[in-house]
Task: structure prediction
Amino acid sequence: MHTCLAFFIIGFLVSTTNGFYSSSDDVIELDSSNFDRLVMQSSDLWFVEFYAPWCGHCQNLAPEWKRVATALKGSVKIGAVDADTHKSLGQQYGISGFPTIKIFGSNKRSPTNYQGGRTADAIVEQALSQLRTIANERLGKRTGGSSGGSSSSGSGEKDTIELTDSNFDSIVIDSEDMWLVEFMAPWCGHCKNLAPEWARAATELKGKVKLGVVDATVHTQLAQRYGIQGFPTIKFFPSGRKDGQAEEYDGGRTSSDIVAWALDKFQANVPAPDVLEITNQAILDDNCAEKQLCIISFLPNILDCQSACRNEHLTMLKNFAENYKRNRWGWLWVEAFRQQKLEDSVGIGGFGYPAQVAINARKGKYVVLKGAFSQMGISSFLKELSAGRLTSPLVPLNGVAEGKLPTIIDSEPWDGQDGTLDIVEDIDLSDINLDDDDSDKMKKVINYRCPKFFQNNFTLSMQSLSVYARLFARAISSTEAEHILFNGLLRLSSSSVHATQSSNSLAITYPSTAIKHAVHLVTVSSGYSSHDNNEYECITKTKRRNSLIEQKPHPSNVYGDDAFFITKHRLGDFLGVADGVGGWREHGIDPSLFSRSLMDACKSLIDNKLIDLNPLTLKELLSKGYKQLLEDKQCIIGSSTACIVALHNEERILHTANLGDSGFVVIRKNTIVHRSQEQQHYFNSPFQLAIHPTIKDPRLIADSPDLASVTSFDVEENDFIVIATDGLWDNLPDATILEEIKQIKVS
Result:
């Protein structure tokens, strides 16, 4: 008894593992060994499903397919091929997606694709219609009109359908199919010439567009209904629900003309795919695993890009999905930080939103949009994908097994509303014991290190974050830890501190000398001020020809690679930030040397009255500062983004220049009214001033100061101008910045 039971369980597992169907079902399992004998050599009508066991849509179809087989038993044969196991059969019939249903009728060598719904009722209805057609053929009924009309000898005439006053509505108007209908007369010479072309077109369009023929001399009601006055006249009826109206065919009279015209209509009437939010594994699998490509967009956190902003992105993506619907791609989106494994698999994470990738799930490869996430940037990217001529190669997904997609965590879909920022009160530290041996508390505090903390929690006020920074500093016995923790993730201070008085300040609020305008400049930079740059030592200066320069790191290099300056001019105030490109560190180069030197050079030019204040000043300032670095005897190597603003004392005008992803915002009445435009070559590769060694490396980027974006505009009383590197913009939502600005007390 126990042996029999064990055998039954094993047998059941094998059956369910190999496919969806078993011998107890009415579905006939087909494979390479029996397909020709059972299907190709039979006179029966066959509906055959090609499926893959891992396909979600196939799993959903299986119970319906069994119902179809039972309902049509004895009339129509219902088969199934595991095309994942029997790949040669799938390849033989051009199977490129699952499930695919093929109809093997009278001409077994030319099966057609089933295009209807995936319910048992829809499939049975289509099967009975096919069965009726075969029966009529066997009764000797012509399918292209009476003798001498628009039918022709050969196999093509079997693919045209004879339409009459009595069957027209049920076959054409009530169907979901797309139709081209020829109204002809047996005595018409042009109709006789069209007949073989019409038959050939019907065969080529089988499974997409149906072609019918009406003898208008016999079925006069139809001729009158559609105003037929000459022969042949061809009418087009779109797919889906029809209102009885028809469109005039205006194409050529050859089969190729007819096919081309009909396919354009067929493609145009295919509904655009939905742009779906990734909230579970099934959505990713259904729209990625079973598509040639899936286009996934990573949109900013809702606090960074509220509902109006997000809907603008989604509308743009839906328009692209409509334009490229013929490609049958999947279209998906996900909020930044929501699906970390997905972001890691395509090399996106922590910054650079919005972003976009295209994934070929079958190959397990992807390519990233390297242009701007804009109408122009995405359009160029999709054109390359559609044409198959990518400027960058597809690369394997990171950390994902072959044939698999990244794991998705179930999440709630976006509710369509704006995000809200919950402000948390500052934490009372009086009851926290910070003894050195309190390891549990230390671990708890250390877990708050950025950026992972910011990826999962945007609700703490920045004052609370500064508390955690101090806790962490105490835990590792380092007063410099606060600066490590806040490297690029910065809090604004309400104190007014000049940069040269506090070189390790995380942030400085600097009231403009133009007091009568009450406009305040705020800089946010985790690096150094520009006045302290004498700690560097350049080693092996003579190696510049063939290798990167080896440099000692700055002795107090705990603040990151940012730099800033603030200085006065007789006509106004200048403020700048720069962000050294961290990738140089891999080559032994201190990234902060370039940014510090650039800011120092700009400040020196202003202090020495070598720069005037006008709309072209700042681009000139960047050019001259950059030139000084090129001529510097320290053999400076590296690169940096930069942003400089100047506020005129006597006019309410702000002059700005930014290169790359450092930038500024203008805040007016707690609303951002102006934002600098980020400049990117492609994802995570901003415009940058650079000095390279003479080695050749295609990854090296160097841009001219002339490419800086320059603007000048009026500011108003009580405006705030916040200037910062990408460490701030990439990691803090606008709502957090606005909330903190509100707390700055202006005297």
About this structure: The longest helix spans residues 120-138.
